[in-house]
Amino acid sequence: MKRNKPLALVAGAALLTLAACGGGGSESESSGSGSDREFGAQEGGSKDAERQGPAEEIEGAAAGGTVTVYLPGDPGPNSLDPTDGWSVTGNSIQQALTHRSLTQYVRDEEGQPLLVPDLATDLGTPNEDFTEWTFTIRDDAKWEDGKPVTAEEVAWGIERSLDSDTFPSGPGTEYSKHYFLGGEDYKGPYTDKGKKSEAISVDGQDVTIKMETPFPDMDYWGAFMAMGPAPLGNASKPPNYGQDPLSNGPYMIEDFQPNQELTLVKNEQWDPASDPGRHQYVDKWVFKFNQDQAKVDQIMLSDNTDSQTAISTSLGSDKYTEANEALGERLVQQTSQCVSTLTPDYTKITDINVRKALAYAYPYEDMWFATGEVPGVTRIPANSVMPPGMAGKKDFQVDGEQITYNPEKAKELLAEAGEEGYQITMVYYEVDPLAVAGQKQLTKGFEEAGFKVKAIPVQVSPYDIWLDPDNKTNKQLNLRGVNWCSDWPAGSTMIPPLLKTDAVYNTAGFSEPAIDEKMDEIATMPLEEQAEAWGELDEEIMTDYFPIIPTAFRNDLFVFGSKIGNPSGDGALGAPNYKDVYVMQ
After folding, report:
1. What is the reported pTM?
2. How far apart are the first and last CA of the chain?
């Protein structure tokens, strides 16, 4: 899943991250406070197929109040269509508050993500070889208009995920298209008008999905909004549906202004008895996108009326010491399975020595400070695509030791490649002051290392440019980025989405048939062998090709106002724990 903050993409900050961020972390890791904070690694999560609604009440929780969420440097989602949701920002808000799916995550007693049922009555029933899954849809969930959520609507929502022409940046491009029977050939209900998917069928309350290849992680994939319902036919026709989609969660959309603000109010048709994971304590939620980090920090540290019932999704590094001492448990450190990367264009920067030179030219700590991160707390050096705590991750170094900023080494590599003065062309998000500050440090570091830099300021999220092959600006670029979190705790949600030929978020354009074949082979291995195989492939790709530059493994810091009850993080989504917070009355 991507992070939405464009700053994070190039600068390694908490900007715009993609993916569902599956996995877990201990209570001490996910809500650390005090001067002894260290970077925490997130481990794999667990499951409870028997969990039923209503969700257990939060001790001391009260109903009422408005919560304002500030999202510094984060443009937020352009669309709220659940089929399109593949960002930490959009998914964390919608999955927690407005849109339900087959399964969902809750926090267990140790603060770890726990996979539980949602619209399905359990976590699904696979056949012996995981090539067929059946989910029984509960009969007591409703839309905001009072109509019941039906199995046919769930099947229709799932079928929509196969339409990669209509939803080119949606998660179905990676999982539904690859794993569902006939997914590579079926173009989806809008592109293949009148045709039905052979993979999806309905029998009463049962939705059955047939697979092209074994898919033991279907219950995890079921936690995505794309595996949830949509109103049948034209009622959910894109793109208009994405501006005001129908809610089936505890909140519904009152107002949505893309890149500016999202307001949610209570959905009176939501029945807590039907939902094992969500609460409806807050009366109204107001999400403010593209906020200035310095101004937000000032608000949150003031303890004034505006801050007391507010949450900030990040904290500037210059305020860390002050906040750490003043806020205590209200400054929450959330572990995640995420990596920030630079992606040299593999079709243009064809010499591995030039790609390595870029890695040595990247001013890691200067970038982290400039973009508001705290070295050792929210960022540590990265050596691989797979993040710490992920099963199968290998302890290796591409050059024998951790790559750090070393401009002289970068110059040597450029000379060896015969590419002194190599020009880098990239974009940066000029709307965010931290992104501008980060670009200044990046340009300085690259130029000191012997590169020339053309940095193009843009007013839209860099993803809007990077993911559009016809974009004129994108065609000029030879350096892009991706900030990625695991969709669930497996290498299959890190390596193929970033490095398989023609994968949507393979912004490097990396393509090696032998590597593609190995990815396909791993998916057919016995489940107990897959983690190690993904780790070995990660090491092979990075050592032999070095197609992308991992600039940081990441944790997040969230700031909670003094009247926000149960300040905590959501390890499954890498965001504040919207499901369980309340306003103290």
Report:
1. 0.88
2. 36
